[in-house]
Amino acid sequence: MAEVAATLVQQLSSLEFDDKVSIYSLMLSRNSQLMASFQVQDTDSAYGDEVSAYSTSLTSSVLSYQFENGRRYHAFRNGIYLFPNDEVEADRLDLMHEMTLVIMNRKLFIAPLGDSPQRVLDLGTGTGIWAMDFGDLFPSSEVIGVDLSPIQPSLVPPNVKFLVDDIEEPWLYNAPFDFVHGRSLACSIKDYKKVIRQSYELSSRTLTRKETAQQNLSRNVAPGGWVEFQDWDMQLYSEDGTTSQTSLENYCDVVFSAFARAGYSTSPGPQLERWLREAGFEDVHAQRYKVPLGVWPKNKYFKTIGSWNLLQAETGFEAAAMAILSRNGGWPKGDILDLVDETRIDARSSSIHPFFYL
Ligand SMILES: C[S@@+](CC[C@H](N)C(=O)[O-])C[C@H]1O[C@@H](n2cnc3c(N)ncnc32)[C@H](O)[C@@H]1O
Fold first, then answer.
1. What single Pfam family name could you report for this chain, choosing any that match (predicted)?
2. Taking the CA atoms of the chain, what radius of gyration do you get in angstroms?
3. The domain containing residue 280 runs over which residues?
């Protein structure tokens, strides 16, 4: 193992900087697999190999988290993602996962995958909760979750692995995927179209959700693969004008325009269908879900979703605003917290009736 690792390090050091970044995850992956085979000999646990998944792949550069304004941020490719990666944020992402399951009638995906999808890639996997649920649902699949932050648990289903990598860099996977999944990447990545193009190269059908789009790609690669993107329209909507001139409206204007100025894709949802077609996909289908914020809806389904959304927003307003406004807008922390507090009050109010679309 030491010999192979040394060869990899040697290969790495002979590369130019850009190449170093992109082969990084490959090296981590190989190391993890090597470590896995050692650990399997040592333990009866079905989780033995996954326990090691990060033990060799985490280097100090990946773990040297940045601390700022009371929050923790990713280290690998420092500064490119502006939400925190601490426990508070991990809890929020798991709340969002539950909310999305409610929205989707407890489906993890809507692509017609059949009974035995094999290779699956989850882009920007976050806490890895979707990847782990998927791995549990299809024990014969091999699921890879990739993220800038190694914040996923170490005890995971034996068919799930996590890699630290930048999905906006060229992908180096050497085999196509049966399913590529990306969820809630709004305000996370800059070149969403490029990520879709890379998915195109690695699969043979696509389905996204709002936008949800599906398509049969008869040319290229093995038939039967699918792609599903689940992402946000961050435009603030209200059917009765109650969001007008609120702190919530002000927050959305200030924060999302700051993300847009910094070059992030802030509202990918409504554009996914077009981006998929532009990437070369055909027969694209899209689906849109209404997502209220708050407990105000009378309908039970929407009230449940609105309640989950309010719960995640309790910490989400700060998570989204802190780095973008302080780093890019020069806002003092106190002013950001004031903006967040006022916005939270509006979100809790039953007389303000906001919603977004997924
Ligand atoms: C809002 S979270 C969504 C997490 C997960 N997809 C989910 O739905 O629970 C966005 C995630 O994308 C990751 N991310 C952002 N930019 C990335 C990049 N360039 N490469 C890999 N991951 C990235 C972040 O670290 C974060 O975990």
1. Methyltransf_23
2. 21
3. 109-232+269-287
| Same domain as 314, residue 168 | no
Residue 61, classed as helix, strand or coil, is helix
Q: Whose CA is nearest to atom 15 of ligand 1?
A: 188
* Residues 99, 240 share a domain: yes
Nearest residue CA, atom 4 of ligand 1? 126
The confidence score (pLDDT) of residue 56 equals 40
CATH number at residue 187: 3.40.50.150
Model pLDDT, residue 54: 40
CA angle 238, 239, 243 (to 5 degrees): 30
Question: Within 6 Å (CB) of ligand 1, which residues are found?
Answer: 74, 80-81, 93, 96-97, 124-126, 129-130, 146-149, 166-168, 183-185, 188-189
User: Total structural domains in the chain?
Assistant: 3
> Helix, strand, or coil here: 35?
helix
Residue 325 pLDDT level (bands cut at 50, 70, 90): very high
Q: In whole angstroms, what is the distance from residue 318 CA to residue 36 CA?
A: 39
pTM (2 d.p.): 0.81
Does 294 share its domain with 244?
Answer: yes
241 burial via Cβ count (<10 Å: 0-12, 13-18, 19+): exposed
- Is the predicted pLDDT of residue 232 greater than 70, yes or no? yes
Q: Give helix then strand counts, H and E, for the chain.
A: 12, 12
Return the residue whose CA atom lies nearest to atom 13 of ligand 1. Answer: 124
First to last CA, the chain: 46
